[in-house]
Specification:
mainly alpha; 10 helices; globular
C-alpha cells in the first residue's frame, strides 16, 4: 500500500471540506453531553458498587445511570456509523447526516455485536501477552468499516477482516504510526490542530480501507 499516495489524496479531499467532516462529530458529542447533563443530578456521582448508598455526596439514581449508559451506547453507535459518512465523502465527495442515521437504523445490532466480540477477544489476548493482543487488534482493524459498508454480520465481518489484513498488519501498523508526528504537535497548538488532523486521519483511514478492499477483493 502506498502510504504517501493515500495521505496526499486525503489532504486533497479535505481541503475546503473541514466543516463538512467536523460538524457531525461535534453534533453527536454535543447531544451526548447535553442529554447526559440533563439526567445527572446536580453534584451527583456514580458509585457502581453501591448505587443506593447514603453519603455526603448525592449518589446517582439507578434509573438515571441506566439512561446515561443508554445515551452513551446510542452516541457510540452514531460515532461508528460516522465511518460510513466518511466513506461516502472519500468515495464521492458527497455525504449527508442521513448517511449516519440510515447506518444506525440498519446496522446498530451488528455494530454492537462486533464491538463487543472484538473487544472481548482483544482483551483476552492482551491478558495473556501484550503483543498477541496488538496483533489481534490489527487483524480486526477493518471490522468497523466492513460492518458499516457491507451486508456482513458481526462474525462474518471479523472473519473477512482477518483475511483482509493477512499480510497487511505491519503495513497498517506503519500507516498508523505515520501520524504520530502530527499528534505530537497537538499540545503545542492548544488542540487547534485537531480541527485539521481529525478529518485528515479519518479520510486517510477510509481511503486505506477502500484500497485494501479492492486489493484483497472483498465483496
Amino acid at each position: 500500500m502506498d502510504r504517501k499516495e493515500i495521505k496526499e489524496l486525503a489532504k486533497s479531499k479535505i481541503k475546503g471540506n473541514l466543516w463538512k467532516l467536523l460538524w457531525p462529530m461535534l453534533a453527536i458529542s454535543l447531544v451526548e453531553g447535553l442529554l447526559s447533563s440533563i439526567f445527572t443530578p446536580k453534584g451527583a456521582t456514580v458509585d457502581y458498587t453501591n448505587l443506593n448508598a447514603t453519603a455526603s455526596t448525592p449518589q446517582m439514581p439507578v434509573g438515571n445511570a441506566l439512561i446515561i449508559l443508554l445515551i452513551g451506547i446510542i452516541c457510540g453507535i452514531a460515532m461508528i456509523a460516522y465511518k460510513k459518512y466518511v466513506l461516502n465523502f472519500a468515495r464521492e465527495g458527497k455525504c449527508e447526516f442521513k448517511d449516519i442515521l440510515d447506518c444506525m437504523k440498519e446496522k446498530w445490532l451488528n455494530i454492537i455485536l462486533s464491538e463487543i466480540l472484538v473487544g472481548i477477544l482483544v482483551f483476552l489476548a492482551s491478558m495473556l501477552f501484550v503483543i498477541p493482543g496488538i496483533i489481534l487488534a490489527f487483524a480486526y482493524s477493518m471490522v468497523t468499516y466492513l460492518v458499516v459498508d457491507t451486508n456482513l454480520g458481526a462474525t462474518d465481518a471479523m472473519k473477512e477482516s482477518r483475511r483482509m489484513m493477512k499480510g497487511y498488519k505491519m503495513d497498517y501498523f506503519v500507516f498508523c504510526l505515520s501520524f504520530i508526528g502530527w499528534g505530537l504537535l497537538v499540545p503545542f497548538t492548544l488542540g487547534l490542530l485537531l480541527i485539521w488532523l481529525t478529518p485528515y486521519m479519518e479520510v486517510a483511514e477510509a481511503i486505506y480501507y477502500d484500497k485494501l478492499k479492492e486489493k484483497t477483493k472483498i465483496a
